[in-house]
Amino acid sequence: MNNIEKLISMINKSNNIVAFTGAGVSTDSGLKDFRSNNGLYKEKSIYPAEYMLSSNCFYNHIEEFYDYYKENFNCLSIKPNSTHKLLKELESIGKLKGIITQNIDGLHTKAGSKKVYEIHGTTYKNHCIKCNKEYDAEYVFKSSGVPTCTCGGIIKPDVVLYGEALPEKDYLEGMEAIHEADMILVCGSSLTVFPASGMLSAFKGKYLVIINNDKTPYDNIANIVIHDNLSKVSDYVLKNGGIK
Fold first, then answer.
1. What pTM did the predictor assign?
2. Is residue 120 annotated as part of the catalytic site, yes or no?
3. Cα-Cα-Cα-Cα dihedral of 60, 63, 64, 68, to 10°?
4. Owning domain of residue 149
5. Distances from the Cα of 101 to the Cαs of 24, 133, 140, in angstroms?
6. What total of structural domains would you count in the chain?
7. Distance CA 87, CA 73 (A)
8. Strand 207-211 vs strand 96-101: parallel, antiparallel, or unpaired?
């Protein structure tokens, strides 16, 4: 029995699965990840990527921040792929109880998943830093230059920038979901970004499965590790899994 067949067997034996997803889930939809050879951190920009995505950059170099943000994080036309669809299917049959995602692209919600803990926020929510009026992603990404509110204030994406804390509600509810899960399915995360990756310490269940192109710090304690393309694995499970 290969690891994908073992994965299918574990899914069928589990009734409270929680998925933990990272940027690798969305690369097959055409988005760039961060740490791979073709990731954002390897690209040249006016400042390092970590700074371009920081609160310091937003408040001190707002024009440069929005040039970078709009170029790299406009997900309006991006569609979910096989992995998003598999997780949605597992939720629809009652096995998957929640998705904890580090991604800000909103693709899990686009795929139809209902219980999504967006611990790094989402590009689809934005607010004025002066009056707190809310704006959608289309307004921000289709604006010219720095998007501003009707009151004249600057609009800020509701995403967690470097130097900011994770949203408390999603973080705490995600921790509770992990604690109650009998299986954690890690998809496309390097598990190196804290405090998000530290959430796995709350897991007391039976199966820890990691599907990621590269090695992670948790590989040695996982029940199964699959270093392969996520869409390939997800396609196989969707078409041949016999999930029940």
1. 0.95
2. yes
3. 130
4. 123-159
5. 11, 25, 22
6. 3
7. 22
8. unpaired
Q: Is the same domain home to 238 and 206? A: yes
> For the segment 42-100, what is each residue's pLDDT rounded down to a tens digit?
888 889 999 999 999 999 999 999 999 999 999 999 999 999 999 999 999 999 999 99
What is the distance between the alpha carbons of residues 79 and 56, in angstroms, rounded to a whole number? 31
H-helix segments, the chain: 3-13, 49-52, 55-60, 62-73, 82-92, 107-111, 137-141, 168-180, 230-240
- Do 67 and 142 lie in a common domain? no
CATH at residue 128: 3.30.1600.10
Catalytic site residue from 61, 84, 120, 179: 120
Q: What does the block give as tokens for 243?
A: 């999930």
Cα separation, 6 vs 84, whole angstroms: 20
Residues 122 and 130: beta-carbon distance below 8 Å: no
Measuring CA to CA, how many Å separate 243 from each of 13, 104, 108, 231? 10, 28, 20, 17
**Which residues 6+ apart lie within 8 Å of 136 measured at CB?**
124, 125, 126
